[in-house]
């Protein structure tokens, strides 16, 4: 009997010893939720054990950079899509071109992970923006809540009518006074909606003086006259209090508004496009992406983990932690959950028009300058041509230094 027990213990030890141990650094899942998800993976792959490390958005980027510089062994890492170019430039990521070739047609969001001719990670969970509008304020302003704005002109007219309702009522909510939201929520996506951009695809030239950017700036400045201009969180609060007719935000505000302002009637629709005959309903493409690190010693097993995590059933389970981002799989919208959450379905479908920021390592510097330019136009009422010329020069200088 003792011999049997000893042999059994030896066999168990050998099995445990033979397991491949993967490291997975991520943001979306906390430790408890990650364990539930990863236990399923380990059950399907008994020869693989996964160690999960939760990162925070406050310092996660720096921790990854430090780990890479220190030669720490990382296998799979969740990245924000705006970081992909930076890490690809550092030669820290394994190319996912073969993965794209095998699975590309089943997923959307590949434009968020493309840099210099290759795909450097896999789109996992996608998030974007849509237009929130107050049904009650629409009715008070003589607008039809069943026919929300689909174009810039329709939105401008609606904002002007709602703004006329009273001193403490604003037609639109325009983000200002913080780093990302001034360009992210709509200004840059509005430029994209015209078919334009603020820099060339190769990151070599600045385009702020183009007619498409100028057209957007003129519209935005005109709209700002009927807008509450403040931080994004304050816009959500004001909208909930019935002080704003419309604003652009992410799906996270659905739960926020329903929880904190249950009496406020609202709906969400696609972001308006420049005109009925011109442009698209472009929006900002945010994404959680999965990268296999270049120096991983277990790339075959790491690929298995990535394949597991992007499965629509698994990705949907992760997304439900915070239903503001949704699986990248093309069939994810068929999940029964969306039948009971039609406003969330709008965001899922809006992803089809979403576009990522230019894939260049210099983007953090560019976005800071873009925010300055926007705020000078909408807050300080400075001349559009002068501002666009000045900041085109500044952004071009950043691009030239890269």
From TrEMBL:
Q: Which SUPFAM superfamilies match?
A: Periplasmic binding protein-like II
Pfam families linked to this entry: SBP_bac_1
Protein name as catalogued = Extracellular solute-binding protein
Q: Which residues cross the membrane?
A: none
InterPro entries in alphabetical order: Bact_solute-bd_prot1, SBP
Lineage top rank: taxon? Bacteria
